[in-house]
Amino acid sequence: MMAPAADAALVDRLRRGDGGAFRELYTRFAQPSFGFLLRLCGRRDAAEDLHQEVWLSIARHAARLDADTDLAAWIFTVARNRFASSRRRADVAVPAADPEQLDHRAAAPADDPAGRDLERALASLPEIHREVLLLVGVEGLEVAQAAAILSIKPEAARQRLARARAALAAALGETETNARKATS
Questions:
Q1: Distance (Å, rounded) from C-alpha 141 to C-alpha 1?
Q2: Contact criterion met (CB below 8 Å) for 67 and 12
Q3: pTM of the model
Q4: If you count Cβ atoms within 10 Å of the first and of the last residue's Cβ in the chain, which end, N or C, has fewer?
């Protein structure tokens, strides 16, 4: 995470329409926001489309940011909202992540079985758990930031995170059990 003073300076530059500030923002957040969308969607093509929509929206609205904008929370809120909107539209429905169909290329190298197991376990979780784990565990956001993105209170985010971690541990345990059975 960038220091608040550095974020404030970047927000100020964005508000003034500084193209270099937008490039800096994109450099900093493009990969994390794409990974977040990919893990939510489970499909590279859907994530790529949503990612383009996210950055077009960010470019359109950057000049109207409040001076105290938390950039990470803003970027991930835009990404999450675009994902949610795509799920609501009948014409461009994005299916929930399917652990067996998940495109792991952006998340776990092909030669990393543990990483693939983790990605499958994450994909098997309900969206409500996957979102909070991705925001806090993968993207390193504070619980308060995740709460703002998810439009819930920080205490609710902490509870959701605890449940999500338990669900992930259970899913990883099932993966390990299935792997042992396959090698027996």
A1: 8
A2: yes
A3: 0.82
A4: C
